[in-house]
Amino acid sequence: MRGHELLSVDAGAAVVVERLPGYVLTDTIGEAGEIAEAAHDAPPEEG
Fold first, then answer.
1. How many CB atoms lie within 10 A of CB 37?
2. Which pLDDT tens digit goes with each residue over 1-47?
């Protein structure tokens, strides 16, 4: 492991799904995943 994903994976907040040239695909898991999912499903803020 060698990039920005290292901190998230070490913290147990993400898993590496796939490595491709130029990027790493991760899946956010646990409490961090729940927060990310809630933020994604929330209506956009106005203003």
1. 11
2. 567 789 999 999 999 999 999 889 999 999 988 998 998 888 888 87
What distances in angstroms separate CA 21 from CA 7, 11, 24, one per listed residue? Answer: 20, 24, 8
**Within a domain: residue 47?**
no
What share of residues in the chain are helix, strand, coil (percent, to 5)? 40, 30, 35
| Domain-embedded: residue 35 | yes
Does residue 46 belong to any structural domain of this protein?
no
Q: What is the pTM of this model?
A: 0.67
Question: Is there a domain that residue 32 lies in?
Answer: yes
